Amino acid sequence: MSKTVIILGATGAIGQEIATQLREKNYRVVVTGRNALKLEKIFEKSQYEFLVLDAMDREQMARITADADYVFNCINPPYDQWEKYWPTISKNIVYAMHKNQFKHVYIDNVYSYGRIVGEKLVSQQPMRPVGKKGKIKKRIINDLQQEEEIWKNTVIAQFPDFLGPTVNNGFFENFIIYPMQGKKPSWLFNDKVPHSFIYTKDAAEAAIKLGLDHSSYGRKWIVSGDESPSGKEFFEIVSSLLSRKSEYRVLKRWQIHLIGIFIPIVKEFLENYYQWNEPFILDNREFLEKYPEFSFMSLRKAVQETMTRLSEKEP
Description:
There is one protein chain. The chain is an alpha/beta fold. The protein has a domain at about 5-165 and about 195-225 and about 280-295: Rossmann fold. The protein has 13 helices and 11 strands. Helix 3 packs across helix 4 and helix 4 packs parallel to helix 5. The longest helix is centred in the N-terminal third of the chain and has 18 residues, at about 80-100. The termini are far apart.
């Protein structure tokens, strides 16, 4: 009998890719989300089982995960409401783990570390978050580490910013969609420093590899694409693929403050100013030492594939 995988937050960028790849591996995949119509729009009913989930309801969380072998936690609350949602959702997952016997794969970012110490970010760097979102993420990890039984059944895959056709946020529109539409894109703060990304298809494959390998559990793994382009380098690739020069602007800190007066959620990005104003490179070595056969897609090919898949979506 095939193993059962529950995907929390399946309609998000990484959740969609993980669901697709696990289904191709013939797992029984149960996709969950807050909105039934959105689930039906994204996933084929003949291939997946659907469950509407309110992750803030701990008893519902426990019921939905009752027969799971693996739970991939891809939940991503609204960017300006992490404080409202994340602490409760995290506690509810721990509660469900006490009730049920499943392996927990937590899809995380790297906000909990704060500024990079040294040339690259490694998982052993102490967590010294610089803002409220980073502190929330640190608290989630601390809660998971607190109990030995919970921690040994948890693996944390930590990624940089996602790049791919399933990504749906304003800054991704700037990087890829705007140039495709002939609009002028924007980069954040400093276009001369390197910034790590990962293609969503690679991120999903890495998360699945970690999740299905029980020897990877009880720790954090940093996983990133091989290339960390500057804004200038990124848009040179975009221009080359579009066969036309993509002029771009660099948004300064004061401009984000100003935009935030009219669009409050934009101010939330100021917490991560350091990620875009300073070199922000994640170190892959530990992951690749464990999985030397793993190959990341080149940045150029990832951007090209993203453009192709986005073009196929257009009416």
